[in-house]
């Protein structure tokens, strides 16, 4: 489902990483492992359509990501790629509901409050619908970003260091949650992490330290 | 959710900052609007009142005072002129028409003006009720006089000496209202019009006391109620004459002739009002510059707060991009924020400006006489509101451009 061909990308001028071919099939999950500075965030951004690589192709299904024009790429990203970051980057001027509405608005799909409620309910956030982001705990904010990433039923769910700032219990439960939610939504999950605690969660691994 | 709503929610999230920016913008716009409203109404009313009058002839003194007293009825007269001299002047070939005025009395602050029917024709006034005056001590009153004092046709009142309402009453002779004029938005609205002889009769105590019995019951037809100057004795006086020339040549020769050869003074309303405006213009321009400075500061303040906020918001912007927002959407989002603030400021300024004029005219009793109100739209107001939108665009264009260029990957990588 996700195919990488002849990818060359430089995290810094010294380190050029190349992946000649790699394929992630439907319902397969990938763990990208690497120390900080190994280029895993860069790779994740390339897969997420946020950063054009120096060379190579990224195909999601049959769509060649970097052949899309600027705003078509933005739309495609909004509709097909869900992103979860280490910190919960929510828009603090807005309520939880508005944050999610924004994801629907920007990706150009119809704004559906029923779907928002549904996603929040599966993450036990149903009561927080009209809360301001600032009033939520860190954990709740993290779950809202997961809700936002899943809202548009993406094909791919990308998570960058989702466990870095969590304790052991929470780290594992967030990985389980992401996996569960990805499977419920038929999305492929790709996690980039240097967290030793969760590295064995998936069978398919890409270790950037070895390159 | 849409871009406008998104910008609005950001604005609402910073109420104090928004309040300050809106207030600055509103004050600037309000000051400009106040000046605009006052200036344009003043100009319109001054030019409306002086139309058809080429020259005002009266007693020597300040020419501006002569104009203000006899054309606009807001200042005190410079004094009186001899009826004979005035009559001699009307025989000049250059004079097409001459309307005599006799001032000096008031009723409840409204001026009683002795004149003839030509004066109402000058302003194309029409009657709403009754008739124009014919007999001495009959009067026709302006619409505003009737409304404010509740006078009706047939009412009787005593005039008071002087031009302000605190002076002593003339309780020897009473005026009788015979007609009320339609509103004309000119000086006539605030005047009580009668024959010149009525004014003389009220003032001429010594002559009257002896002949009172003869006068009191039998009304005397005015000697020149329709046009021309009345008949009077050698000592008879009037206050001024409003003169219309036969040709432009009159404007060249008459004022000089009057000013150097007679005891009278000639002043041109066009010239004097222009002089008045150029004097006021200095002050108006200074206040206007001050207002523009406030607007520039408001724009700067909006620019600075947007630009500073951008540092905190670069994650927000990157997230929006990652959610599918195109670069141009972010640009418009930031521009909207600037425009919303300045537009609210503009609307606030609009309300403040008109409210302030209305409030001030309520405080200042003469404003009715000059015909100024806050409840009218004047030319140029539209442009002022356009300015406020323009300031919003200008203040937000740099921050918007910087939002447009947000490098998503770079920002999101800086955890």
From TrEMBL, chain A:
GO cellular component terms, alphabetically, are: plasma membrane
Residue span(s) of domain ABC transporter: 2-210
Q: Which Pfam families match?
A: ABC_tran (PF00005)
Q: Which UniProt keywords apply?
A: ATP-binding, Nucleotide-binding, Transport
Q: Please name the GO terms that the record assigns under molecular function.
A: ATP binding; ATP hydrolysis activity; transmembrane transporter activity
Give the InterPro entries listed for this entry: AAA+_ATPase, ABC_transporter-like_ATP-bd, ABC_transporter-like_CS, ABC_transpr_LolD-like, MacB-like_ATP-bd, P-loop_NTPase
Task: Please name the PANTHER family in this protein's record.
Answer: IMPORT ATP-BINDING PROTEIN, TRANSPORTER, PUTATIVE-RELATED
Return the protein name: ABC transporter ATP-binding protein
From TrEMBL, chain B:
What sections of the protein cross the membrane?
Answer: 20-38, 290-310, 330-352, 382-404
Recorded hits in InterPro entries, A to Z, give: ABC-4/HrtB_transporter, ABC3_permease_C, MacB_PCD
Where is the protein localized?
Cell membrane
User: Looking at the record, which segments are called Disordered?
Assistant: 204-224
Q: Which residues form the ABC3 transporter permease C-terminal domain?
A: 289-406
What positions does the domain MacB-like periplasmic core occupy?
18-199
Task: Specify the superkingdom.
Answer: Bacteria
Describe its membrane topology: Multi-pass membrane protein
**Compositionally biased region (Basic and acidic residues):** 204-217
Q: What is its main location?
A: membrane
Give the record's GO CC terms: plasma membrane
Keyword ATP-binding annotated = no
Give one Pfam family: FtsX
Keyword Lyase appears in the UniProt entry? no
What are the alphabetically sorted keywords of the record?
A: Cell membrane, Membrane, Transmembrane, Transmembrane helix
The identity of this protein, by name, is ABC transporter permease
Task: State the organism named in the record.
Answer: Roseivirga echinicomitans
């Amino acid at each position: 489902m996700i195919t990488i061909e002849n990818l060359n990308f430089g995290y810094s001028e010294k380190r050029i990483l190349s992946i000649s071919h790699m394929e992630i099939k439907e319902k397969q999950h990938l763990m990208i492992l690497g120390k900080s500075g190994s280029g895993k965030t860069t790779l994740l951004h390339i897969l997420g359509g946020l950063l054009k690589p120096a060379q190579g192709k990224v195909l999601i299904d049959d769509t060649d990501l970097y052949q899309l024009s600027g705003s078509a790429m933005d739309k495609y990203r909004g509709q097909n790629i869900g992103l979860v970051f280490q910190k919960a980057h929510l828009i603090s001027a807005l309520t939880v509901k508005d944050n999610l509405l924004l994801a629907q608005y920007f990706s150009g799909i119809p704004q559906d409050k029923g779907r928002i409620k549904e996603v929040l309910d599966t993450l036990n956030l149903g009561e927080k619908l009209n809360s301001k982001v600032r009033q939520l705990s860190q954990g709740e904010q993290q779950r809202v970003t997961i809700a936002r990433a899943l809202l548009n039923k993406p094909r791919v769910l990308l998570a960058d260091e989702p466990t870095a700032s969590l304790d052991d219990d929470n780290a594992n439960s967030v990985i389980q949650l992401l996996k569960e939610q990805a499977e419920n939504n038929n999305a492929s999950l790709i996690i980039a992490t240097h967290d030793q605690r969760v590295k064995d969660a998936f069978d398919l691994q890409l270790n950037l330290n070895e390159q | 959710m849409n871009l406008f709503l998104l910008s609005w929610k950001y604005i609402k999230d910073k109420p104090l900052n928004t309040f300050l920016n809106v207030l600055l913008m509103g004050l600037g716009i309000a000051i400009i609007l106040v000046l605009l409203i006052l200036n344009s109404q003043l100009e319109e009313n001054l030019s409306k009142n002086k139309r058809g009058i080429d020259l005002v002839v009266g007693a020597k003194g300040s020419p501006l005072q002569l104009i203000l007293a006899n054309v606009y009825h807001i200042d005190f007269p410079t004094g009186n002129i001899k009826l004979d001299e005035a009559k001699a002047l009307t025989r000049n070939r250059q004079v097409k028409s001459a309307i005599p005025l006799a001032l000096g009395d008031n009723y409840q602050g409204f001026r009683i003006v002795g004149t003839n029917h030509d004066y109402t024709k000058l302003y194309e006034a029409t009657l709403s009720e009754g008739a124009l005056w014919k007999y001495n001590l009959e009067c026709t009153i302006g619409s505003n006089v009737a409304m404010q004092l509740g006078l009706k046709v047939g009412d009787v009142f005593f005039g008071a000496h002087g031009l302000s309402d605190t002076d002593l009453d003339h309780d020897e002779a009473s005026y009788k209202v015979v007609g009320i004029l339609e509103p004309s938005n000119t000086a006539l609205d605030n005047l009580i019009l009668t024959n010149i002889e009525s004014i003389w009769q009220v003032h001429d105590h010594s002559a009257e006391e002896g002949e009172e019995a003869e006068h009191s019951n039998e009304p005397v037809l005015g000697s020149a109620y329709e046009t021309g100057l009345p008949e009077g004795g050698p000592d008879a006086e009037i206050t001024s004459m409003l003169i219309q020339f036969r040709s432009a040549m009159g404007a060249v020769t008459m004022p000089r002739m009057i000013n150097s050869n007679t005891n009278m003074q000639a002043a041109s309303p066009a010239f004097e009002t222009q002089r008045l405006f150029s004097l006021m213009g200095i002050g108006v321009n200074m206040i206007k510059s001050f207002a523009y400075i406030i607007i520039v500061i408001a724009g700067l303040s909006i620019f600075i707060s947007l630009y500073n906020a951008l540092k905190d918001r670069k994650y927000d912007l990157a997230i929006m991009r990652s959610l599918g927002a195109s670069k141009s959407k972010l640009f418009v989002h930031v521009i909207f924020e600037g425009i919303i603030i300045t537009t609210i400021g503009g609307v606030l300024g609009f309300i403040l400006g008109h409210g302030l004029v209305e409030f001030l005219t309520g405080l200042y009793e003469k404003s009715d006489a000059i015909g100024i109100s806050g409840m009218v739209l004047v030319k140029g107001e539209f442009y002022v509101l356009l300015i406020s939108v323009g300031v919003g665009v200008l203040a937000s264009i740099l921050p918007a451009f910087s939002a447009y260029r947000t490098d998503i990957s770079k920002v999101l990588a800086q955890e």
